[in-house]
Amino acid sequence: MREMAGAVPEVSRDSETAGKQFYCRKEKSLGVLCSNFLKLYNRDGVDLIGLDDAAIKLGVERRRIYDVVNILESVGVVARKQKNQYSWKGFAAIPQALRELKEESLKENFGASGFCSSMKDLNENENKGSSQNANGEDNSSMLSKLESKREKSLWLLTQNFVKLFLCSDMDFITLDNAAAALLGDDHNSTAMRTKVRRLYDIANVFSSLNLIEKTHHPESRKPAYRWLGWTGKPNNGSVTTSDLQVPKKRIFGTDITNTKRKRADPLVGLKSNQKENVPVGIKHNDLENDGSVDKLKQHSRHSSAGFVYGPFTPRSEATVHDSAGHNSIQDLKTLASTYYPRYQNQGIL
DNA sequence: GCATCCCGCCAGCCG
DNA sequence: CGGCTGGCGGGATGC
């Protein structure tokens, strides 16, 4: 994986595979990957998940698996077992995980009026106990190191994101607001931008889990997310986008990370730091605001039962739908086999 | 044009 | 030291 570049030296171009698989960003979204991941492992008998296995079966770089898995771990769907291995907990673990998160956040006074103030280090405890630090390194130093690492993790960010929904009574949250809140005081544009990127990642997998739904803020019209909570199943219970079932789908396995669009100049060494102003947060204090948000809150209470597909549109919904009745292993088998990426898969096959 | 967010470089950590 | 992890943000894609 990491040497992808070397392993797949721009074979991409005209080389065989007649088909011209165009690059389609949407098909590569974390949301789609997550759906496929869930589809692949949400079955009886599945207990352990090997990251390599997942990466190969899903035809993506391992790096992406880390993203999905880290987010899923935040809501209990999977749990880290050991290096390179996670255990599948299933959707049944979600309610409990959410309950705990809510409890935690309440304890930390997360929601309430000014929750954003104490966003940082809200995980100081962490049943430590292991103070066998190395010589010279005092406990605090060590802790802060680990802490800072943990503090920026996707795992924590995801949990805090959830807490935001669980504790503030707002139903609609824009990622800008979330980022601002989760960032605490430092609102510099660069940090915001990065944080928002990560939130988009999280939002995508949450959308595929159907925990949230993307809509627009009732008044500001701005894109925002609405909490749906765990209603029993991810999306429509089957994979969203094309993929599986589409009998004809183009060869997917050939594009692991696919024919990338190579950026022109590799030595971007010194970029002019021009990232000055970015509309930091939408000003309106949706968050810290007191009470007044309640009105927005009940605006549209789940109007239709129709699902929302998150970021990606299902255009192949019909297909997915009717054959979903028997989604099953067969499909997965096919999926897996057609997915074999052509970079290092000898193992199986 | 701006919202979205994929991609993969590369720094830490772990064994 | 090599491999596993995963933060991070450039810049491409979508609309």
UniProtKB/TrEMBL annotation:
Signal peptide (from-to) = none
Q: Pfam family of this protein, just one?
A: WHD_E2F_TDP
Q: Where is the composition biased (Polar residues)?
A: 128-143
Question: What SMART domains does UniProt report for this protein, alphabetically?
Answer: E2F_TDP
Q: Which is one GO molecular function term here?
A: DNA-binding transcription factor activity, RNA polymerase II-specific
Could you confirm whether the keyword Disulfide bond appears in this record? no
Species the sequence originates in: Rhizophora mucronata (Asiatic mangrove)
Compartment(s) where it occurs, according to its Swiss-Prot or TrEMBL record: Nucleus
- Region called Disordered, residue ranges: 124-143
Q: What is the lineage of its organism?
A: Eukaryota, Viridiplantae, Streptophyta, Embryophyta, Tracheophyta
Q: Which PANTHER family match?
A: TRANSCRIPTION FACTOR E2F (PTHR12081), TRANSCRIPTION FACTOR EFL-3 (PTHR12081:SF7)
Q: Which domain of life is it from?
A: Eukaryota
Protein name as catalogued: E2F/DP family winged-helix DNA-binding domain-containing protein
Q: Which GO terms describe its cellular component?
A: RNA polymerase II transcription regulator complex
Which InterPro entries does this chain map to? E2F (IPR015633), E2F_WHTH_DNA-bd_dom (IPR003316), WH-like_DNA-bd_sf (IPR036388), WH_DNA-bd_sf (IPR036390)
Q: Which SUPFAM superfamilies match?
A: Winged helix' DNA-binding domain
Domain annotation E2F/DP family winged-helix DNA-binding: ranges: 25-90, 149-229
What family does the entry list? Belongs to the E2F/DP family.
Tell me the keywords, alphabetical order. Cell cycle, DNA-binding, Nucleus, Repressor, Transcription, Transcription regulation
